[in-house]
Specification:
The structure holds two protein chains of two kinds. Chain A is of the alpha+beta class. Chain A is built from five helices and five strands; from the N terminus they run ββαβββαααα. In chain A, helix 2 crosses helix 5 and helix 3 crosses helix 5. Chain A starts with a strand and ends in an 8-residue tail after the last helix. The C terminus of chain A is likely disordered. The C terminus of chain B is likely disordered. By secondary structure, chain B is α+β, with helices and mostly antiparallel strands. Classes of the chains: A alpha+beta, B alpha+beta. The interface between A and B is large, with 57 and 56 residues.
């Protein structure tokens, strides 16, 4: 067993974990952060994407021990404490960028990282930027719109873009 | 809170943002795999690595010795109790159903079939212990190719059946009295075109892997499952396991997509129930993606031999369809019925004089096939839209002109087809005209000719698909005539609470379609209550006890109408009480915007909320009136509805690399009236994406030993955002005449229409090379080979991969030095 300390969605946790435990299983099964989901076993689908120290990772491909000392943001930590939605959440709602919603947490967090690197991406840049995240429902068109819309909102509001 | 004054005149037709989103975008979800219960145990399933083998020995003792393992079982342990997976659609009286054990007992018949199960205190322990199970297999030859499977002396998948044929289902318009005799049409034809099309095997690939939790409750069970069909599952599970139906509760919480893939009673659901009852503990099973791809049912997989006859002027006369449909190793819930659902759609929007459809259902040692988005109708639409292009090519006619010449004219509706179906309404002319305008068809045609003339290595192809489909499954009488076991009605109930808030219970179990939003819009208009005052309840057989669930674009056209009817009953009850409150005759009241008032005496009135409270208090109701406004309605449609549309695709095909890149995709769909255009557009986008995926990307491939070589998302190419274009969508509105909302259904339209539009475009680009077909998916390799050899590529060994068996998955020596024309 290994000792880890991780901050997840602004809460500090210290736990003993098996060295082989995946970060996504640590989140889901030890911390009950079930907003983050598992969609595949080959790191293709991106449903489990979270931010690790601000950068998007597929949490099925990170060991919990690798997150020791780090800060993790999941979909459950995107909205503000007062419940107001993050720009990416609002944009996904406004643009009808989700149907079943299973890929949505990972898709939004991948988009956050994309917008951090490129606040005003073109359609093609969004498409290439989220190609590690699969969606079976939407055909991606409204997701692309939502990411671009969130980018416009976030670059107009520095505080929101700081995530 | 929304006030009545804030409400728009009608909710229906408004692009309301979805109610469903709030919990999905914040991660406050209830996926089945999120569920934990005290003492819950975890299941892991050992699956067959063999396509076809006798099981000679199973020893689970090694697994039992592992830390954390509570129990382990083989098929023998449940041989007497597991029953067989139900098949609800015996399409012919003599259909052969070999029986589908949930856990294989003596023989395995496809790779991925469940053979043993480990139960442990955590998921990792269960998974680890699978390796300690010892199984001896005695291999049998795999059965992979449908034609070979039907040949005399073929190895049989199932020893106890006479052959590998499950059934032959046939329809002929002369015999049915719905049209002429096909033999006459074939004999008298001035022009005949025959083609063989291959519908490759596909995998629904919903994003949420299947998951099931079962809690034993006294002498019954509660099951949470990632299913499209909690109601069907409840009934079928009780029949399969001889559990009294009233002791079984099934809950479909948040469900992450289905596309037909969760229209099933799965072996895993049965196994979980057996284990939970045996151990008296709650259990959970969640599949991995690899398990999902090889054991959840597949879709499509047909060989289509199509003959079309016509006069020299292009008037089509006859259509003769012979299918082989791969059932896989077993029959699941509606496996045999899927191709039969397509039987009435091959003639599509065209006025054929004679029609024949013959389908053989064939067993192979592959994963069973069953419903996948469109279920029978994409296959039919592909075949007719492809053969129309081939006929046009043969006649030297413009493919669009050929379609115009033969389609049902707007003024001819309602129109009874050569299959005997009566199409409710449509305007193919208007949808097509709008689509041509949006894509700039004439300019694209001019560009195509220029690029052909200058032998541009990147050729432009233009593809057309003018499709129709049948939605709203289904009139129960029709289902009965097709030997389906159940009906096609849908139920809704409305509960008006004391404070005037409204609960709507629906039997349509949504999993991404947006029922909560759309049903709220319908009820807001019907009852005159605010959109936000309505709660939609679904997906739990205890709280929504009656239903036929969600598939076949049926929810709105059947379930939505049940909601309307339930609302009408609420208004009728409220009218009686309002009349009493207003001291008026019920017939003198009018109901508008949620308020009853006396005709000609505006001002005085009673709102539905006031009536709701008066009913709740029940202090002063008319004599003999029950103190409730609640209602219940079950709607059984009289007919299907028939959406249609025109999809156009412009594709750049690089003849040097074989790469096909969609440049523009335009569709104009006519789905009748629309409740929520935002949701409709989303359904169309997603549907088109799945249809394009069949045309260009996806294929479930088996090697010559019967291994699924596309068993992970590394190999099975679900398209990403970078693989797809933006779509231009528009609509025309031909109100359905078969239901009071005038709606037609949209869930499958995009998938049905888009595949032939894309493939027709690819072929159009390559006509100068004499190419008449490329097997789907039209991969760069296949396109490049077709260009390099100049040969028609519909033959079974033509592709780079062999979708339905055969010797190899890929060859690198198949190219020839054939010259380009």
């Amino acid at each position: 067993m290994a000792q880890i300390s991780v901050t997840v969605d602004q809460v500090d946790y210290s736990d003993e974990v098996e060295p082989r435990l995946l970060l996504v299983h640590y989140l889901r099964e030890r911390l009950g952060k079930v907003g983050t989901v598992v969609g595949c076993d080959t790191s293709n689908c991106g449903a489990c994407t979270v931010l690790l120290d601000g950068k998007s990772v597929k949490s099925c491909s990170v060991l919990a021990v690798q997150a020791n000392g780090s800060t993790v943001t999941t979909v459950e930590g995107l909205a503000s404490a007062d419940g107001s939605l993050h720009a990416i959440q609002q944009a996904f709602h406004d643009e009808h960028a989700l149907q079943c919603g299973f890929c949505t947490p990972g898709m939004m967090l991948a988009a956050c990282d994309l917008l951090r690197e490129n606040p005003n991406p073109s359609e093609q840049e969004v498409r290439e930027g989220i190609e590690g995240n699969l969606c079976r429902c939407t055909g991606y068109q409204n997701i692309v719109r939502a990411v671009q819309a969130a980018g416009r909102t976030m670059s107009g509001s520095a505080t929101e873009a700081s995530l | 809170m929304t006030t009545l004054e804030d409400r728009p005149v009608t909710e229906v037709g408004k692009a309301r943002k979805r109610k469903e989103d709030a919990h999905l975008i914040t991660g406050r979800t209830t996926w089945t795999d999120n569920m934990t219960l005290p003492g819950m145990l975890h299941l892991a399933i050992l699956r067959s690595p063999m396509a076809h083998a006798k099981i000679t020995r199973v020893d689970v003792s090694g697994a039992l010795a592992r830390t954390g393992v509570v129990a382990a079982f083989s098929g023998q342990d449940f041989a007497e109790t597991q029953g067989v997976i139900p098949c609800a659609w015996p399409v012919t009286a003599d259909m052969v159903n070999p029986g589908h054990p949930s856990l294989a007992v003596t023989q395995v018949n496809h790779v991925g079939e469940a053979v043993a199960v480990v139960v442990a205190r955590d998921k990792y322990a269960a998974q680890d212990a699978l390796e300690a199970i010892d199984i001896d297999y005695d291999p049998l030859p795999p059965v992979l190719d449908m034609e070979a499977a039907l040949a005399d002396g073929a190895v049989k998948v199932h020893d106890h059946t006479e052959s590998n044929k499950s059934y032959t289902w046939a329809f002929e318009s002369g015999a049915a009295g719905t049209g002429g005799a096909i033999d006459d049409a074939l004999r008298e034809a001035e022009v005949t075109v025959k083609r063989r099309f291959i519908q490759q095997r596909l995998i629904p690939a919903f994003m949420e892997p299947r998951s099931t939790v079962v809690q034993p409750m006294g002498d019954g069970v509660t099951m949470w499952s990632s299913t499209q069909v909690p109601h069907i599952l409840r009934t079928m599970l009780s029949l399969t396991l001889a559990l009294p139906e009233h002791k079984v509760r099934v809950i479909a919480p948040d469900v992450g997509g289905g596309f037909g893939g969760k229209l099933q009673v799965t072996p895993e659901e049965v196994i979980c129930t057996l284990v939970a009852r045996k151990l008296g503990k709650p259990v959970k099973f969640t599949e991995s993606r690899s398990e999902s791809l090889m054991s959840a049912h597949h879709g499509r997989d047909q060989i289509q031999d199509i003959t079309i006859t016509a006069k020299k002027d292009g008037t089509v006369t006859g259509l003769d369809v012979h299918l082989m449909a791969d059932m896989g190793a077993y029959l699941r819930l509606v496996s045999p019925g899927v191709p039969v659902l397509g039987a009435f759609m091959f003639n599509s929007i065209y006025k054929f004089g004679a029609y024949r459809f013959v389908c053989d259902g064939v067993f192979t040692t592959k994963t069973p096939t069953d419903a996948y988005r469109g279920a029978g109708r994409p296959e039919a639409t592909f075949a007719i839209e492809r053969i129309m292009d081939e006929l046009a090519n043969e006649l030297g006619m413009d493919p669009l002109e050929l379609r115009r010449k033969n389609w049902i004219k707007h003024e001819e509706f309602p129109f009874t087809t050569v299959c005997g179906l009566t199409y409710d309404s449509g305007n193919y002319e208007a949808a097509t005209a709008r689509a041509l305008e949006l894509i700039g068809w004439d300019d694209l045609k001019a560009e195509r000719e220029q690029r052909r003339a200058r032998k541009d290595p990147v050729q432009l192809g233009l593809g057309i698909s003018t499709f129709t489909e049948m939605c709203g499954l289904a009139p129960s009488r029709v289902l009965g005539s097709l030997d389906y076991a159940a009906g096609g009605w849908e139920n809704a109930a409305i509960r008006v609470l004391a404070t005037g808030k409204v609960e709507v219970v629906t039997g349509s179990s949504a999993h991404g379609q947006g029922h909560e939003t759309a049903w709220s819009q319908i009820v807001a208009d019907q009852l005159g209550v605010p959109f936000d005052d309505i709660e939609i309840i679904h997906g739990d057989t205890q709280s929504s006890p009656k239903g036929m669930d969600t598939y076949g674009s049926r929810s709105l056209t059947v379930g939505g109408i049940a909601v309307v009817q339930a609302a009408e009953k609420v208004v009728a009850k409220a009218r009686t009480i309002a009349a009493h409150m207003l001291e008026a005759n019920p017939d003198d009241l009018e109901f508008s915007g949620g308020t009853f008032s006396v005709k000609g005496a505006p001002g005085a009135g009673k709102t539905i909320q006031e009536i709701a409270f008066a009913t709740f208090a029940a202090h002063d109701l008319p004599d003999g009136i029950e103190p409730t406004l609640d209602s219940d309605a079950t709607f059984d449609p009289e007919n299907f509805s028939f959406p249609h549309g025109t999809h156009l695709c412009a594709i750049d095909v690089d003849t040097e690399t074989g790469r096909a890149t969609i440049r523009r995709y335009v569709c104009v769909d006519d789905i009748g009236e629309v409740i929520n255009p935002l949701i409709v557009e989303g359904q169309v986008h997603g549907g088109i994406a799945q249809g394009i995926a069949q045309a260009l990307y996806e294929e479930a491939v088996y090697d010559d030993a019967g291994n699924l070589t596309t068993g992970t998302f590394v190999d099975y190419l679900v398209p990403s955002a970078a693989d797809l274009p933006s779509f231009t969508t528009d609509r025309t509105v031909s109100r359905s005449t078969t239901n009071p909302l005038g709606v037609k259904g949209v869930g499958e339209a995009g998938t049905i229409a888009s595949t032939p539009a894309v493939v027709n475009a690819v072929i159009d680009a390559l006509r100068p090379w004499g190419i008449n077909d490329i097997q789907m998916p039209c991969t760069p390799e296949r396109i490049w080979r077709a260009v390099a050899t100049g040969a028609e590529k519909s033959d079974r060994d033509a592709g780079g991969t062999v979708a339905y068996g055969g010797a190899s998955t890929s060859t690198s020596d198949g190219s020839s030095d054939g010259e380009l024309s």
